[in-house]
Specification:
alpha/beta, UDP N-Acetylglucosamine Acyltransferase, domain 1, Udp N-acetylglucosamine O-acyltransferase, Domain 2, 2 domains, 10-stranded mixed beta sheet, 9-stranded parallel beta sheet, 27 strands
Amino acid sequence: MPIHPTAIVSPKAKLADNVSVGPFSIIGDNLVIGPETKIGAHCVLEGNTTIGRGCEIFTGAVVGSRPQDLKFKGQTVYLEIGNNNIIREYCTLNPGTAEGAKTIVGDNNLLMAYSHVAHDCRVGNGCVLANNSTLAGHVTIEDKAVIGGLVAIHQFVRIGMLSIVGGCSKVVQDIPPYSTCDGHPARVYGLNLIGLRRKGVSHDSIKQIDQAFRVIFNSGFSAKHAVEKLEAELSKSEEVAYLVNFVKTSERGLARSVAKS
């Protein structure tokens, strides 16, 4: 696969076999790019950035540029991108901020056009960020979460695995795993049943997750007391145990529910 003659590739960059680089793209000194990755036209890849195998980066993406954080004073920071990611047109991905800090994107993710992954974020595996999804600093997106278009996520928020956040939502608190959420600010509407079934979660486990959601969101208990009740009374599936731990470790608090019963 060719490197276009108009591309500027630093001789210090480490490109594996079969990496292609499109017209007018720029590859900086400290790039490490895995096999069979394709860089489109007019892309800028810089900083201490590692990109895995089989990724596709489309026109105009800017990957690894300095973080958009006034605290950043030139520390040595990193961006790590895994395998088989699709990064569409004009996406921006920034590294960490503190000395040695990293932004990490896992495997098999789709970042649609104009998505932004800010400094110190963690994106898991199999996630979808639709057009103009915007992650502030220190956001965590867990595996197989789906973020709708034009969603803005506040710094330090966690988005739980297999959750869906509807388009144009404003997310200021943690989104629980397995949920569907929407709104301004985002609220929990119920379970992501389609995602749970696709993952192969059993009918009994889905029923237990539903019971857990009712205790957490509709019982009137505080998060602490809801967790205590679930740990004491509900026969926990693996998924419920994960949900309970997510609630216990939430620092920003959970998004509220719109359900009444």
